[in-house]
Amino acid sequence: MPTSSTSTEQKAPSRLRVNISGEDRDLFMSFGLLNEVASLVGSPEGVPTLSFNPPTAHALLELVLAKRDKRGNILRDDEEPIVPHDLDPDVGETIIDWAGAHVLDFFIRRFKKSAQLFATQAENLAAVGSSLTSSVNSPGKTA
């Protein structure tokens, strides 16, 4: 199994067990859920909104706590809210911290891998950039 963490980095566990309204729930950070959380925050700069923006925190809790079918589609139950009103604040914060750690780690890994890719392709990128710059200065057939 590939890993990009070094021995000094602590990666969030892929599973989290929490007790919600007297029921033990096993949460799993799948790639699909991680993508949904990444879309919610948008960028590494948006990760703190999970902690400091109540609508974003609630949206995150809905993404994580929603019951889903095998395709990952959220199963709606009109009788029960996805995030129970009596959710213990400590449990809510634990879930937010767990998901936040995952999405921040995801962004950092993607940045590292993108930087490595750009470094290996620096010569090709410079050639393309030079080509694009010269085509901007040259008038096209319609000019």
Overall, the morphology is elongated
Rg from Cα:
21 Å
Question: What's the number of helices?
Answer: 5
Structural class based on helices, strands and sheet pairing: mainly alpha
Number of domains: 1
Question: Biggest β-sheet, characterized?
Answer: 2 strands, antiparallel
Low-confidence stretches: 1-8
What spatial order of strands do you see in the largest sheet?
1-2
Run of helices and strands: EEHHHHH
What does this structure look like?
The protein has a two-stranded antiparallel ribbon. 52% of the residues lie in helices and 8% in strands. The protein starts with 14 loop residues before the first strand and ends in a 6-residue tail after the last helix. The protein has one domain. Helix 1 packs across helix 4. The chain has helices spanning 31-41, 49-52, 54-65, 89-120, 122-137; strands spanning 15-20, 23-28. Strand 1 and strand 2 (23-28) form a beta hairpin. 10% of the residues are buried. The protein is built from 5 helices and 2 strands. By secondary structure, it is mainly α.
Describe this protein with a few key phrases.
143 residues; mainly alpha; two-stranded antiparallel ribbon; 5 helices; 2 strands
